[in-house]
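Run folding on both entries below.
>entry_1
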Amino acid sequence: MLLDVLCFVFYLIASAIVVAGMFDKKGPNKTLATVSVVIAIVLHAYILKLGVFLSPGQNMSMLNVASLIGWLISVTMLVTSFKLPNTILLPVIYGFSGLIVIANSQLPSAHMMNVGIKPTLLIHIGLSLFAYASLSIAFLYTLQLSYINLRLKEKKASLLHSSLPPLMAVENILFKLLLVGTVLLTLSLITGFMFLDDMFAKEQAHKTVLALIAWVIYGVIVIGHWLYGWRGRWVITTSILAAALLTLGYFGSRFVREVLLSS
């Protein structure tokens, strides 16, 4: 529990530093924020090691998976923060990761798997995690794009000083993330049909169907942008819809089974 609290505190410190810097013309103290979040990420990785890798298998409970995705996103956004405009997203990401760590410590659950018995399952799980992480980051950039659009229309961009990146830069990153995420999601679905026998079983059918619908929507967005230059409000709305379907498909039933019913 002490490790969970320390991890949460360092995520919170990093978030607070970034938020405070958004309203300062000099921007956030990047060195202090980076040190804080690196400590949080290291603690988070150790907590995941203790909670996921159990004998004789792996505990892939809903909160453990959410924690793992939060860790992947935090690491990715920290690394890319030195090159890409994502400062405004960092408090949301770090705050989410910290809250998931605390929630996982207070609501422990188990969904045991043994990847060693079926190594091909590891390929599917890895692709699924990276696909969801990529599309989650794309979702955050979608929100950022929508927020910048709103601020520019209201002529209040100066409120956040240099923390608001150029609109076109954010849009360019968004479509690259959507492309990468859609490719990974495609590979995840392909490996699922190749290596799993229960993709349309009673407990998995809704997850598969929702993932396929989200995949179609993402595919239409990517192809539409590539061929016809689609952008703007329609892309933002459909991206949010696809992200919601994907999240509901994976976490919806597991939340009911592992959190609501178990409590």
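>entry_2
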Amino acid sequence: MKNNFIQRTITGVLFVAILVGCILYSPLSFGILFTLICALSVHEFSHLVNQSGDISTNKIITALGGAYLFLALMGFCTSAADARVFLPYLGILLYLMITELYLKKKNPIGNWAFSMLSQLYVALPFALLNVLAFQNSPETSSVTYNPILPLSIFVFIWLSDTGAYCVGSLIGKHRLFERISPKKSWEGSIGGGVFSVASSFVFAHFFPFMPMWQWAGLAVVVVIFGTWGDLTESLMKRQLGIKDSGNILPGHGGMLDRFDSALMAIPAAVLYLYVMTLFK
């Protein structure tokens, strides 16, 4: 028990340090890290669904597709490439569709569905981090790297998880979604939300490129959709009959276990921030 706690602590500290360090250091380190995370997460997802025996997706090609989608959107958001950068990605999707005509596998429709889901559910959210990280200034026609927005998404998620665990352990009585995740409580979720919103005021103070109410709104959106993202992965694992999505992170499970909340929180954050621009 003690060894497991030490292992979880060391892994957790290294995980946070690498993630925060690469986001803050430079656009290059940001791109390298999340290209790798995206590819590993898509590969892990494909591996999980293949374990059922009824599904047989191409783990290498889907992971390659995820990595390319991240890099393509990064190139597009930084104005390093135009829309034609997405053409090879369309080629990858077509390859995944067409090859099923010739492979004679027992469930081609399932293979198609889960191959596309690996891109929609896993790869696209990671790629959308580029939309948060790179802002195009119409006045100067230049692109700037803003690491604070993508970093804030993860900080809000981490604080929400920590707050939910602490508050839920102390006073949690009313189950949030017992059918899927019996341990989660309404009290814990609300407590985690309070932690995240409180941290949004700190972001607003030190990084006033958004007003305080907009920062607070972003925290609320991340908490709500992050919770749904967590429940989504819990439902998937429950259906597959597994405890962890993988073992790449000792004591913390797999990549999907660490980023399940982000997979829904990132697209929601992008949508929220674009809607906010309509009120400026």
